[in-house]
Amino acid sequence: MNKKNLYNRIWAKSNNSWLLGIPLGGFIFLAIGVFILIAMQQVISYTSTTEFCQSCHIGSDTVVEEYQQSIHFMNRTGIRAECVDCHVPDSLLPKLIAKVSTGTTHIWSKITKDINLDNFESEHRERMANNAKETIRSLNSSTCMSCHDFDNMDTDKQGRTAKRKHSTKRRKDKTCIDCHSGIAHKLPEIVF
Ligand code: HEC
Ligand code: HEC
Ligand code: HEC
Ligand code: HEC
Protein backbone atom coordinates (compact mmCIF):
# COMPACT_ATOMS: atom_id res chain seq x y z
CA MET A 1 0.00 0.00 0.00
CA ASN A 2 1.47 3.38 -0.93
CA LYS A 3 1.51 6.36 1.39
CA LYS A 4 -1.39 8.12 -0.33
CA ASN A 5 -3.68 5.13 0.02
CA LEU A 6 -2.87 4.77 3.67
CA TYR A 7 -3.60 8.47 4.18
CA ASN A 8 -6.92 8.11 2.44
CA ARG A 9 -7.88 5.09 4.49
CA ILE A 10 -7.21 6.82 7.75
CA TRP A 11 -8.77 10.14 6.95
CA ALA A 12 -11.53 9.11 4.56
CA LYS A 13 -14.99 9.92 5.79
CA SER A 14 -16.44 6.79 7.25
CA ASN A 15 -19.63 5.35 5.85
CA ASN A 16 -20.55 3.97 9.22
CA SER A 17 -22.25 6.82 11.00
CA TRP A 18 -22.24 4.85 14.26
CA LEU A 19 -18.48 5.38 14.39
CA LEU A 20 -19.32 8.94 15.42
CA GLY A 21 -20.41 7.41 18.70
CA ILE A 22 -16.78 6.82 19.67
CA PRO A 23 -15.69 10.49 19.92
CA LEU A 24 -19.13 11.42 21.21
CA GLY A 25 -19.01 8.75 23.94
CA GLY A 26 -15.46 9.82 24.80
CA PHE A 27 -16.61 13.38 25.14
CA ILE A 28 -19.52 12.45 27.41
CA PHE A 29 -17.23 10.36 29.63
CA LEU A 30 -14.77 13.22 29.84
CA ALA A 31 -17.54 15.64 30.80
CA ILE A 32 -18.84 13.27 33.50
CA GLY A 33 -15.27 12.77 34.78
CA VAL A 34 -14.65 16.50 35.03
CA PHE A 35 -18.01 16.97 36.77
CA ILE A 36 -17.21 14.27 39.37
CA LEU A 37 -13.76 15.77 39.99
CA ILE A 38 -15.21 19.23 40.56
CA ALA A 39 -17.90 17.83 42.87
CA MET A 40 -15.26 15.92 44.89
CA GLN A 41 -13.13 19.02 45.14
CA GLN A 42 -16.11 20.97 46.45
CA VAL A 43 -16.93 18.30 49.04
CA ILE A 44 -13.30 18.12 50.17
CA SER A 45 -12.96 21.87 50.55
CA TYR A 46 -16.29 22.29 52.32
CA THR A 47 -15.57 19.46 54.77
CA SER A 48 -12.17 21.02 55.47
CA THR A 49 -13.56 24.25 56.88
CA THR A 50 -13.59 24.99 60.58
CA GLU A 51 -17.27 25.99 60.17
CA PHE A 52 -18.05 22.44 59.09
CA CYS A 53 -16.32 20.95 62.18
CA GLN A 54 -18.05 23.48 64.40
CA SER A 55 -21.48 22.60 63.02
CA CYS A 56 -21.33 19.41 65.10
CA HIS A 57 -18.84 20.19 67.83
CA ILE A 58 -20.38 23.41 69.16
CA GLY A 59 -23.07 22.53 71.65
CA SER A 60 -22.12 18.89 72.15
CA ASP A 61 -18.66 19.50 73.61
CA THR A 62 -16.40 22.39 74.55
CA VAL A 63 -13.43 21.88 72.23
CA VAL A 64 -14.26 24.79 69.91
CA GLU A 65 -14.54 27.34 72.70
CA GLU A 66 -11.27 26.09 74.21
CA TYR A 67 -9.54 26.28 70.85
CA GLN A 68 -10.70 29.89 70.54
CA GLN A 69 -8.89 30.67 73.79
CA SER A 70 -5.70 28.94 72.70
CA ILE A 71 -2.49 30.23 71.16
CA HIS A 72 -3.28 28.35 67.95
CA PHE A 73 -6.35 30.54 67.39
CA MET A 74 -4.78 33.90 68.06
CA ASN A 75 -1.17 34.84 68.69
CA ARG A 76 1.42 37.52 68.37
CA THR A 77 2.29 36.75 64.75
CA GLY A 78 -1.25 36.19 63.46
CA ILE A 79 -0.87 32.64 62.21
CA ARG A 80 -3.94 30.49 62.86
CA ALA A 81 -4.11 26.72 62.84
CA GLU A 82 -7.56 25.58 61.67
CA CYS A 83 -9.06 22.29 62.92
CA VAL A 84 -7.96 20.30 59.88
CA ASP A 85 -4.40 21.69 60.03
CA CYS A 86 -3.83 19.56 63.15
CA HIS A 87 -6.38 16.76 62.74
CA VAL A 88 -6.36 15.85 59.04
CA PRO A 89 -3.29 14.90 56.98
CA ASP A 90 -2.61 17.19 54.05
CA SER A 91 -1.53 14.81 51.28
CA LEU A 92 -4.35 13.67 49.04
CA LEU A 93 -4.59 9.91 49.64
CA PRO A 94 -4.27 9.96 53.46
CA LYS A 95 -6.67 12.90 53.45
CA LEU A 96 -9.26 10.99 51.45
CA ILE A 97 -8.88 7.94 53.71
CA ALA A 98 -9.27 10.13 56.80
CA LYS A 99 -12.34 11.84 55.32
CA VAL A 100 -14.07 8.59 54.54
CA SER A 101 -13.12 6.61 57.67
CA THR A 102 -13.26 9.24 60.45
CA GLY A 103 -15.97 11.14 58.61
CA THR A 104 -18.30 8.18 58.66
CA THR A 105 -17.48 7.28 62.28
CA HIS A 106 -18.23 10.86 63.32
CA ILE A 107 -21.56 10.87 61.56
CA TRP A 108 -22.36 7.42 62.99
CA SER A 109 -21.38 8.53 66.52
CA LYS A 110 -23.44 11.69 66.09
CA ILE A 111 -26.49 9.57 65.35
CA THR A 112 -25.94 6.79 67.87
CA LYS A 113 -24.24 8.51 70.83
CA ASP A 114 -25.79 11.38 72.63
CA ILE A 115 -22.70 13.45 73.42
CA ASN A 116 -23.74 16.66 75.13
CA LEU A 117 -22.39 19.32 77.44
CA ASP A 118 -23.50 17.33 80.52
CA ASN A 119 -21.83 14.02 79.69
CA PHE A 120 -18.91 15.12 77.46
CA GLU A 121 -16.39 15.63 80.26
CA SER A 122 -17.43 12.62 82.38
CA GLU A 123 -18.15 9.99 79.74
CA HIS A 124 -16.65 10.89 76.37
CA ARG A 125 -13.70 13.23 76.56
CA GLU A 126 -11.06 10.75 77.60
CA ARG A 127 -11.85 8.36 74.76
CA MET A 128 -12.04 11.15 72.19
CA ALA A 129 -8.77 12.76 73.34
CA ASN A 130 -7.01 9.40 73.17
CA ASN A 131 -8.33 8.79 69.67
CA ALA A 132 -7.24 12.25 68.57
CA LYS A 133 -3.74 11.75 69.98
CA GLU A 134 -3.51 8.28 68.48
CA THR A 135 -4.36 9.67 65.04
CA ILE A 136 -1.75 12.43 65.26
CA ARG A 137 0.80 9.89 66.55
CA SER A 138 0.08 7.55 63.63
CA LEU A 139 0.94 10.47 61.33
CA ASN A 140 4.24 11.03 63.22
CA SER A 141 2.92 14.52 64.04
CA SER A 142 3.25 15.45 60.37
CA THR A 143 0.26 17.76 60.76
CA CYS A 144 2.14 19.74 63.45
CA MET A 145 5.25 19.70 61.33
CA SER A 146 3.50 21.29 58.38
CA CYS A 147 4.02 24.48 60.41
CA HIS A 148 6.68 23.63 63.00
CA ASP A 149 9.98 22.06 62.05
CA PHE A 150 12.78 21.05 64.43
CA ASP A 151 15.29 22.19 61.81
CA ASN A 152 13.83 25.68 61.72
CA MET A 153 13.74 26.12 65.49
CA ASP A 154 16.15 28.62 66.92
CA THR A 155 16.46 26.67 70.15
CA ASP A 156 18.71 29.36 71.61
CA LYS A 157 15.62 31.51 71.75
CA GLN A 158 13.61 28.83 73.54
CA GLY A 159 13.30 28.25 77.24
CA ARG A 160 15.95 26.05 78.88
CA THR A 161 13.77 22.95 79.18
CA ALA A 162 12.49 23.30 75.63
CA LYS A 163 16.01 23.70 74.26
CA ARG A 164 17.16 20.60 76.10
CA LYS A 165 14.14 18.48 75.14
CA HIS A 166 14.26 19.51 71.49
CA SER A 167 17.90 18.52 71.08
CA THR A 168 18.41 15.56 68.76
CA LYS A 169 19.78 13.50 71.63
CA ARG A 170 16.82 14.03 73.93
CA ARG A 171 14.00 13.74 71.48
CA LYS A 172 15.43 10.59 69.82
CA ASP A 173 12.54 9.27 67.71
CA LYS A 174 9.84 11.11 69.57
CA THR A 175 7.55 13.44 67.65
CA CYS A 176 5.67 16.53 68.88
CA ILE A 177 2.57 14.71 70.10
CA ASP A 178 4.65 12.40 72.36
CA CYS A 179 5.54 15.38 74.52
CA HIS A 180 2.87 18.00 73.78
CA SER A 181 -0.83 17.88 74.40
CA GLY A 182 -3.45 20.35 75.48
CA ILE A 183 -2.17 22.88 72.95
CA ALA A 184 -5.59 23.69 71.49
CA HIS A 185 -8.04 22.26 74.04
CA LYS A 186 -8.11 21.45 77.72
CA LEU A 187 -6.94 18.01 78.69
CA PRO A 188 -9.38 15.42 80.02
CA GLU A 189 -9.69 15.67 83.77
CA ILE A 190 -8.41 12.13 84.15
CA VAL A 191 -4.72 12.24 83.29
CA PHE A 192 -3.76 9.88 80.49
C1 HEC B 1 -21.53 14.99 61.83
C2 HEC B 1 -21.02 15.66 63.02
C3 HEC B 1 -19.53 15.92 63.09
C4 HEC B 1 -18.77 16.71 62.26
C5 HEC B 1 -19.23 17.51 61.04
C6 HEC B 1 -17.41 16.66 62.78
N1 HEC B 1 -17.35 15.86 63.91
FE1 HEC B 1 -15.69 15.39 64.98
N2 HEC B 1 -16.76 14.10 66.13
C7 HEC B 1 -18.15 13.95 66.09
C8 HEC B 1 -18.55 12.97 67.09
C9 HEC B 1 -19.98 12.54 67.38
C10 HEC B 1 -17.35 12.53 67.73
C11 HEC B 1 -17.21 11.46 68.83
C12 HEC B 1 -16.69 10.18 68.24
C13 HEC B 1 -16.61 9.12 69.31
O1 HEC B 1 -17.66 8.77 69.82
O2 HEC B 1 -15.51 8.70 69.64
C14 HEC B 1 -16.27 13.27 67.12
C15 HEC B 1 -14.92 13.14 67.48
C16 HEC B 1 -13.89 13.94 67.02
C17 HEC B 1 -12.51 13.87 67.46
C18 HEC B 1 -11.95 12.94 68.52
C19 HEC B 1 -11.21 11.80 67.90
C20 HEC B 1 -12.10 10.78 67.28
O3 HEC B 1 -11.87 10.44 66.10
O4 HEC B 1 -13.02 10.29 67.96
C21 HEC B 1 -11.81 14.81 66.75
C22 HEC B 1 -10.33 15.11 66.84
C23 HEC B 1 -12.75 15.47 65.86
N3 HEC B 1 -14.00 14.92 66.06
C24 HEC B 1 -12.41 16.47 64.99
C25 HEC B 1 -13.26 16.94 63.98
C26 HEC B 1 -12.83 17.82 62.92
C27 HEC B 1 -11.42 18.34 62.73
C28 HEC B 1 -13.93 18.06 62.13
C29 HEC B 1 -14.00 18.90 60.86
C30 HEC B 1 -13.14 18.49 59.76
C31 HEC B 1 -15.06 17.32 62.70
N4 HEC B 1 -14.60 16.67 63.82
C32 HEC B 1 -16.35 17.32 62.19
C33 HEC B 1 -19.01 14.61 65.22
C34 HEC B 1 -18.63 15.40 64.15
C1 HEC C 1 -1.04 26.30 61.08
C2 HEC C 1 0.25 26.19 61.73
C3 HEC C 1 0.36 25.37 62.99
C4 HEC C 1 0.06 24.06 63.20
C5 HEC C 1 -0.55 23.07 62.20
C6 HEC C 1 0.46 23.73 64.54
N1 HEC C 1 0.98 24.85 65.15
FE1 HEC C 1 1.74 24.97 67.03
N2 HEC C 1 1.93 26.96 66.87
C7 HEC C 1 1.69 27.69 65.72
C8 HEC C 1 1.82 29.11 66.02
C9 HEC C 1 1.66 30.24 65.02
C10 HEC C 1 2.14 29.20 67.40
C11 HEC C 1 2.35 30.46 68.21
C12 HEC C 1 3.72 30.99 68.02
C13 HEC C 1 3.91 32.22 68.86
O1 HEC C 1 3.20 33.19 68.64
O2 HEC C 1 4.72 32.16 69.78
C14 HEC C 1 2.22 27.84 67.89
C15 HEC C 1 2.57 27.50 69.20
C16 HEC C 1 2.82 26.20 69.63
C17 HEC C 1 3.38 25.83 70.92
C18 HEC C 1 3.81 26.79 72.02
C19 HEC C 1 2.67 26.92 72.98
C20 HEC C 1 2.82 28.07 73.94
O3 HEC C 1 1.97 28.11 74.83
O4 HEC C 1 3.70 28.90 73.77
C21 HEC C 1 3.45 24.46 70.96
C22 HEC C 1 3.96 23.59 72.09
C23 HEC C 1 2.91 23.97 69.70
N3 HEC C 1 2.54 25.06 68.90
C24 HEC C 1 2.78 22.65 69.36
C25 HEC C 1 2.05 22.18 68.26
C26 HEC C 1 1.67 20.81 68.04
C27 HEC C 1 2.01 19.67 68.99
C28 HEC C 1 0.97 20.76 66.89
C29 HEC C 1 0.30 19.55 66.24
C30 HEC C 1 -0.72 18.87 67.02
C31 HEC C 1 0.93 22.10 66.33
N4 HEC C 1 1.58 22.93 67.21
C32 HEC C 1 0.35 22.48 65.12
C33 HEC C 1 1.36 27.17 64.48
C34 HEC C 1 0.94 25.87 64.24
C1 HEC D 1 11.09 14.98 74.12
C2 HEC D 1 9.94 15.80 74.32
C3 HEC D 1 9.58 16.87 73.31
C4 HEC D 1 9.41 16.71 71.94
C5 HEC D 1 9.58 15.45 71.12
C6 HEC D 1 8.97 17.99 71.46
N1 HEC D 1 8.90 18.90 72.47
FE1 HEC D 1 8.40 20.86 72.32
N2 HEC D 1 8.80 21.15 74.31
C7 HEC D 1 9.12 20.14 75.19
C8 HEC D 1 9.23 20.72 76.53
C9 HEC D 1 9.51 19.94 77.81
C10 HEC D 1 9.01 22.11 76.41
C11 HEC D 1 9.03 23.16 77.49
C12 HEC D 1 7.68 23.31 78.05
C13 HEC D 1 7.59 24.46 79.03
O1 HEC D 1 8.57 25.16 79.22
O2 HEC D 1 6.48 24.63 79.54
C14 HEC D 1 8.74 22.35 74.99
C15 HEC D 1 8.44 23.60 74.45
C16 HEC D 1 8.00 23.80 73.15
C17 HEC D 1 7.63 25.08 72.57
C18 HEC D 1 7.70 26.43 73.27
C19 HEC D 1 9.11 26.93 73.19
C20 HEC D 1 9.33 28.21 73.95
O3 HEC D 1 10.47 28.46 74.34
O4 HEC D 1 8.37 28.95 74.15
C21 HEC D 1 7.22 24.84 71.28
C22 HEC D 1 6.75 25.87 70.26
C23 HEC D 1 7.35 23.42 71.05
N3 HEC D 1 7.83 22.82 72.18
C24 HEC D 1 7.01 22.80 69.88
C25 HEC D 1 7.30 21.48 69.58
C26 HEC D 1 7.03 20.87 68.30
C27 HEC D 1 6.31 21.55 67.17
C28 HEC D 1 7.50 19.60 68.35
C29 HEC D 1 7.54 18.60 67.19
C30 HEC D 1 8.21 19.07 65.99
C31 HEC D 1 8.06 19.39 69.68
N4 HEC D 1 7.92 20.56 70.39
C32 HEC D 1 8.62 18.22 70.13
C33 HEC D 1 9.30 18.82 74.90
C34 HEC D 1 9.28 18.25 73.63
C1 HEC E 1 -2.89 23.04 67.16
C2 HEC E 1 -3.51 21.78 66.84
C3 HEC E 1 -4.99 21.63 67.01
C4 HEC E 1 -6.01 22.43 66.51
C5 HEC E 1 -5.89 23.70 65.73
C6 HEC E 1 -7.25 21.78 66.90
N1 HEC E 1 -6.99 20.64 67.61
FE1 HEC E 1 -8.37 19.34 68.33
N2 HEC E 1 -6.88 18.30 69.32
C7 HEC E 1 -5.54 18.52 69.17
C8 HEC E 1 -4.80 17.59 70.02
C9 HEC E 1 -3.31 17.50 70.16
C10 HEC E 1 -5.78 16.78 70.67
C11 HEC E 1 -5.51 15.63 71.66
C12 HEC E 1 -5.92 15.99 73.07
C13 HEC E 1 -5.22 17.23 73.54
O1 HEC E 1 -4.00 17.24 73.61
O2 HEC E 1 -5.91 18.23 73.80
C14 HEC E 1 -7.07 17.26 70.20
C15 HEC E 1 -8.29 16.74 70.62
C16 HEC E 1 -9.52 17.05 70.02
C17 HEC E 1 -10.78 16.39 70.32
C18 HEC E 1 -10.99 15.26 71.31
C19 HEC E 1 -11.55 15.76 72.63
C20 HEC E 1 -10.52 16.40 73.53
O3 HEC E 1 -10.92 17.27 74.29
O4 HEC E 1 -9.36 16.05 73.49
C21 HEC E 1 -11.73 16.98 69.52
C22 HEC E 1 -13.21 16.65 69.46
C23 HEC E 1 -11.07 18.00 68.73
N3 HEC E 1 -9.73 18.03 69.05
C24 HEC E 1 -11.70 18.79 67.79
C25 HEC E 1 -11.14 19.94 67.24
C26 HEC E 1 -11.90 20.95 66.50
C27 HEC E 1 -13.37 20.85 66.17
C28 HEC E 1 -11.01 21.94 66.16
C29 HEC E 1 -11.29 23.26 65.47
C30 HEC E 1 -12.34 24.09 66.05
C31 HEC E 1 -9.69 21.54 66.69
N4 HEC E 1 -9.83 20.34 67.34
C32 HEC E 1 -8.51 22.26 66.54
C33 HEC E 1 -4.95 19.48 68.37
C34 HEC E 1 -5.63 20.50 67.71
UniProtKB/TrEMBL annotation:
The reply on keyword Membrane is yes
- Annotated residues that bind heme 2 are located at C83, C86, H87, H185
List, in alphabetical order, the GO biological process terms annotated in this UniProt record: anaerobic respiration; denitrification pathway
What does the cofactor section's free text say about binding? Binds 4 heme groups per subunit.
Q: Which cofactor does it need?
A: heme
Q: How is it placed in the membrane, per its record?
A: Single-pass membrane protein
Where in this chain does the record put each NapC/NirT cytochrome c N-terminal domain? 28-189
Descriptive protein name: Cytochrome c-type protein
Which ranges does the record mark as transmembrane?
20-40
> Which PANTHER family does the entry link to?
CYTOCHROME C-TYPE PROTEIN, CYTOCHROME C-TYPE PROTEIN TORY
Query: From which domain of life does this come?
Result: Bacteria
Q: Which family does it belong to?
A: Belongs to the NapC/NirT/NrfH family.
